[in-house]
Each structure stands twice: as C-alpha cells, then as structure tokens.
Amino acid sequence: MSDITWQTPLCGGNGGNSCLQIGHTSAGVPVLREATHPTELITTTHQGLRNLIEAAKRGDLDHLL
Fold this sequence. Notes:
It comes from Streptomyces luteoverticillatus (Streptoverticillium luteoverticillatus). The chain has one helix and five strands, in the order βββββα. The chain is an alpha+beta fold. The chain has one domain. Strands 1, 2, 3, 4 and 5 form a five-stranded antiparallel β-sheet that branches.
C-alpha cells in the first residue's frame, strides 16, 4: 500500500515513542499505523474511524489507558 497519504504523526508525551499515524489510500480508504511498526496497517471504513474518534471524545475508551 504505497499509495497512502499520511497525516503528521500524533505523538504522546513520552519522547515520541508512541506515535499514531492516520492516512488514506488513493481510493479514500482510512488507514492507521503505529510509527514504530510502519508496515503493520489497519484499514477501516470512514464510519468506523468516525465511531472510534467519537468514542474517544466521549471518554468511552478511557478505561483502556
């Protein structure tokens, strides 16, 4: 999947060792990866990504931290 446009990494406060990148393929498919494992990709749908972001905003995922 070399046709991915990546956004600037979203890094935590631990010296940049936990950076998540979100991008999309030329076909518009949302893709996520951990910067330390750039070949391991997670693809999803726009609705799946929207659901994840909305759940995080509501605090529904706080128990995972």
